[in-house]
Design brief:
Length: 394
């Protein structure tokens, strides 16, 4: 019976999705097909808000404000189809409509609601008022001021977290690029079993990150971890190194951020290696042949041929790597077991997670998230602007 019930739920979900897509396609087809008819505009304004309210009625009691909102939204859509789209590119729009609406519901609506929430005060003491009345106290820019003046955690301030996050991001991306570039140079040569090496090196990036991080976390265990076992044997074999402090370390308790950094570097190098290797293989060998004739050394060829020619490939990869690393809560959460534990390894996104789901400061967390988004947007635009400037110089 449980299996049949599960199958019924899956089939019912598929049917609902199909009905929703069908209704969406019919809605857009009406606007494409009849946009030039005299009755198009009044019929659209009369029919769509009523249909939308009929759909929303089982979920919540529609109000006059909802009716006005639906009416205004349909007026904008109908006007766009009547005077801007005018029936052009019907098939492409119909094919893209389900994906566009799905992305709007999954991405645009949460972002708009988060922006709305950041100007209000939603927390444990006001959440019942929101549930009962649908209203949240408006506080203006107060949440944004608190982001910069109060600590999201119990010990670490926003500015300390920002500095730690920038150091975390720079360190990881630097070693991602350095390690990936070194391995790509090695694999770009004619060596035996190159495919085997490439497959083995890409495993940390290809496997599920949860599995990879938890496996590496075990290697840093205080007593049974591989890293401490190796350090202990080195200290035993070379006593003078033991006097210098070489030996087993309490990685997870004393050096949590360093441990997270080492693991994240190990995870990120394969991605950079694959990207840079693709760029290296696209460089024509004629450049290197001409350089050999001119008597250029290996490092001269590396500086004046390889680096300039892989820059168009490297810059977008570095931008993506920066954004991913800046937002990478997975490694820190899984390594330190963050349910409100140590704050020594927290960066902005992990502090944001704790502020929302440990301390239940929802509006504060929304403002915090907007600030983090603005920082990432600024970093990405700066990277891309530098990339465009470099291309213009060439």
């Amino acid at each position: 019976m449980e299996i049949l019930r599960s199958l019924y739920e899956v089939v019912w979900f598929i049917v609902l999705i199909a009905l929703g897509v069908g209704a969406l396609e019919g809605y857009f087809y009406y606007h494409f097909k009849f946009h030039d008819r005299r009755w198009f505009f009044p019929a659209a304004l009369a029919a769509f808000p009523l249909a939308a309210l009929a759909v929303s009625a089982p979920l919540s009691a529609p109000s006059f404000a909802h009716w006005l909102w639906f009416l205004g939204a349909e007026a904008v859509v109908a006007a766009a189809f009547r005077w801007i789209v005018r029936g052009r590119h019907t098939l492409p729009y119909l094919l893209l409509a389900p994906a566009f609406v799905g992305l709007a519901l999954l991405l645009v609506y949460p972002f708009v609601f988060e922006f709305y929430l950041s100007f209000h005060d939603l927390k444990l003491t006001t959440i019942m008022m929101w549930k009962n009345t649908g209203r949240i106290p408006f506080v203006g820019l107060d949440q944004y001021i608190k982001v910069f003046t109060t600590s999201p955690l119990s010990e670490v301030t926003f500015w300390a977290l920002l500095g730690r996050t920038l150091l975390w991001t720079f360190t990881n991306v630097f070693f991602h690029v350095l390690g990936g570039f070194a391995l790509a140079l090695l694999l770009n040569n004619s060596i035996r079993f190159k495919g085997v090496y490439r497959t083995l090196l890409v495993i940390p990036w290809a496997m599920p990150q949860v599995v990879a991080v938890l496996a590496m976390r075990g290697e840093f265990h205080a007593t049974n971890g591989f890293v401490n076992i190796v350090l202990g044997k080195i200290a035993a074999a070379f006593p003078f190194l033991a006097h210098l402090g070489v030996g087993p370390v309490q990685w997870l308790s004393d050096w949590p951020l360093t441990t997270c950094t080492i693991i994240n570097i190990w995870l990120g190098i394969p991605f950079m290696m694959v990207v840079i290797l693709g760029g290296l293989q696209s460089i024509s060998s004629s450049y290197y042949d001409a350089a050999d004739i001119d008597g250029a050394t290996y490092f001269q060829k590396l500086r004046f041929i390889t680096l300039p020619l892989i820059r168009p490939v490297l810059m977008p990869a570095v931008t993506l790597g920066t954004v991913w690393t800046f937002n990478n809560i997975n490694v820190i959460y899984l390594v330190t077991g963050q349910a409100g534990g140590t704050e020594q390894a927290d960066i902005l996104v992990s502090a944001l997670y704790k502020a929302a789901f440990t301390y239940n400061r929802y509006s504060y967390s929304a403002a915090f998230a907007i600030v983090v988004f603005a920082l990432l947007f600024f970093i990405s635009v700066t990277y891309l602007h530098g990339f465009d400037a470099a291309k213009e110089e060439r």
